[in-house]
Design goal:
329 residues, mainly alpha, MetI-like fold, 14 helices, BPD_transp_1_N, transport, MetI-like
Length: 329
């Protein structure tokens, strides 16, 4: 049972980490080359015009005043306005983040559904053809660049077969659920699945290979423990021994990697989103980097930081569910 004291402690720790990340992002913004004034004014702008723009942006104030204003804005959900798009950054992220989070979750689910059983099969068939096949598949998954895999899936599956679209999102998961619940129409789920399956496979392939190898390694170690031999000596069915006892005790390292990788998937889906024209945060940040739109870049980095802290908070809580002997202090 997770104690309230432990949850409060982890929450405060997460707040401090996010504050540190926000402060670092602010410092990087001010030491990086280039200026927002150069983005918003032409090269031939007069000094008076540049000073007026600096005043409007608050860049003429002391650095500590800018930091306090920036921190206050973050606390109230105001991440400023995009220099290029002229729209609130928080609204841009709110519009784009659901697609990115949805893609990351779909990639994680696909990876886990395939990787954990494959790792168990590989461990229970050590040095046999199934083990060699699983090891080869995981090696290919780790070695294959996701942008190349995405392009190959588009060329082979989308262009040649024609069942899956080459780009776009179609409809969101929430919209598909609403369509099914209120209108009893499953067409939204079909459209959602057709659009998300290829990007999710592309994003989750490396993750799947990593979890397969880790599950195999942990299962091999657990299968050599005495309690497994005792369970078998008592006549327990082999699936019960494997999945209830050995696999559960193998999950702590896997949960750690899953937590880290989910954060990576949220922050590292940029290439996949560009390849599949997925309307997530990835395309938004590429445009911001191209145009030196630091307000969007700041907002994106804050979003990634909060995502990492949130995921790791739930990973710590999951530890105590899988293994109650883990210390909460």
């Amino acid at each position: 049972m997770v104690s309230g004291r432990y949850l409060v402690k982890r929450f405060v720790h997460g707040i401090l980490v996010v504050w540190g990340a926000i402060t670092l992002i602010f410092v990087l913004r001010h030491i990086s080359p280039g200026s927002p004034i150069n983005v918003m004014t032409p090269p031939t702008a007069s000094p008076e015009l540049r000073e007026r723009v600096a005043e409007e942006l608050g860049l003429n104030q002391p650095i500590y005043v800018q930091y306090l204003d920036y921190l206050g804005g973050v606390l109230t959900g105001d991440l400023g306005n995009s220099y290029v798009r002229g729209a609130p950054v928080s609204q841009l992220l709110i519009d784009r983040a659901p697609a990115t989070i949805e893609l990351a979750i779909a990639a994680t689910v696909i990876a886990l559904i395939i990787a954990i059983p494959l790792g168990v099969i590989s461990a229970t068939n050590r040095d046999e053809p199934l083990d060699y096949g699983a090891s080869l598949a995981s090696l290919l998954g780790i070695s294959t660049p996701n942008f190349w895999l995405g392009l190959m899936l588009i060329m082979v599956v989308s262009v040649q077969i024609g069942f899956f679209p080459t780009s776009g999102r179609g409809t969101g998961f929430v919209a598909a659920v609403q369509l099914l619940v209120f209108e009893m129409d499953a067409g939204g789920f079909v459209t959602w699945f057709q659009h998300i399956i290829l990007p999710a496979i592309t994003l989750g392939t490396y993750f799947m290979a990593l979890i397969t190898r880790l599950t195999r390694s942990e299962m091999l170690e657990e299968l050599e423990q005495e309690y497994v031999q005792v369970c078998r000596a008592k006549g327990l069915p082999e699936p019960l021994v494997l999945y209830k006892h050995a696999l559960r005790n193998s999950m702590l390292p896997v949960v750690t990697v899953v937590g880290l990788q989910v954060g990576y998937l949220i922050g590292g889906s940029i290439v996949v989103e560009v390849v599949f024209s997925w309307p997530g945060v990835g395309n938004l940040i590429i445009d911001a980097l191209t145009n030196s739109d630091w307000m969007i870049i700041q907002g994106y980095l804050i979003l990634v930081s909060v995502s990492w802290v949130t995921v790791n908070f739930f990973v710590d809580v999951t530890y105590t569910v899988l293994d109650p002997t883990v210390s909460l202090e």
